[in-house]
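Holo prediction — glycine.
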Amino acid sequence: MKSIILNTPSCDSTIYCGEGAFKERTQYLKDKKLFVITDSNVHKIYAPLIKEAFGENYVFVMPAGEGSKNHTQLFKILSAMLENGVTRSSVVVALGGGVVGDVAGLAASLYMRGVKLVQIPTTLLSQVDSSVGGKTAVDFKGVKNVVGTFYQPGEVIVDPMFLNTLPKREIRCGLGEIIKYGALDKGIYKSLIKNRAHLKGIKFLEDITFDCIAHKAEVVRADERDVGGRRKTLNLGHTTGHAFELYYRRKSHGEFVLIGMYYELFIARRMGICGGRYADNLEKLIKKVIGKIPAYEDAERAAIFAKYDKKNTATTQVSVIVPKCEGESEEIKLQLEEYAGFIAQCRDSLLEG
Ligand code: NAD
Ligand code: GLY
């Protein structure tokens, strides 16, 4: 088991990674009053493990899926915390994917103005990204992650054992965020290129997960509250990914990140920011994981949803983080119409084949 210390102005957090991390670290929680939050799929698969690790502690099971990431579910959790005598010395355990982690993190940050939080991510996406760094949120009025807080978990327990039960589609979603890290970090990019024939191998995923977390920890240390510009880079692929996610809803977050990265790479190429073999390699990686990129008929309309992006400083301008060269990205600001125009051009190029 390896660990990464993530000290920020608000909290000292330790991220434990590796086979056996769950068993080893949960034994330190045994003498605490816990409030465990999970989802229906994870509960169904891991009920015996949950019982063994958390005993008689209360387990709140929310319906699986992005549809649970809302204020109704949040207030159900807060009610159950109150009814079950959760106090400031209790520990909230978020056991699940990014949806559980985001909602449970928000509940932990709000209840009594903050209860200790342990994140135990069970999807690849939540292991490489969402469980680390303290962003919590629910979706509200159709806008993604618009109500939330920064609230660091005291501990994150990343155990690859959970990946064994993960559907292939969810591995693909996690690879979406991993490729994003590849566009930000030279070492991760090289590792992806070197291992491109077996990106889904558990050993490769375990190693690359650690590298992605290390990259994210460095960024969060430098810019915890996403104000210095550094943390914005983690949003590569997300301006378009989130806009499409809001408009189309049919796919998962990680799949939209992959599609978003493809469309944004197109913009970077058109603007002469990224090109050559590096751009070709990124494109190949994206396509290898997601397959065919959708040529959305009403892509321009979907693109308008980018106006809600939290990186924007004006409602008429869209901020996009685009890949530049190995290990480097760049923020570009486009007028909404100009951005939608690029998105339409990308769609047209996909239609032309
Ligand atoms: P998810 O939480 O919906 O999990 C995906 C599916 O996998 C669900 O059906 C879940 O029940 C199932 N599942 C979870 N663990 C499993 C396991 N071990 N075996 C079998 N099935 C399992 O989705 P996700 O992709 O993990 O997370 C997406 C969410 O994360 C989005 O809401 C996104 O906005 C958020 N996110 C947050 C941050 C952040 O920094 N806070 C970063 C990236 C993404
Ligand atoms: N996933 C983006 C961030 O944590 O900032």
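READOUT: Residues 202-222 form the longest helix (21 residues).
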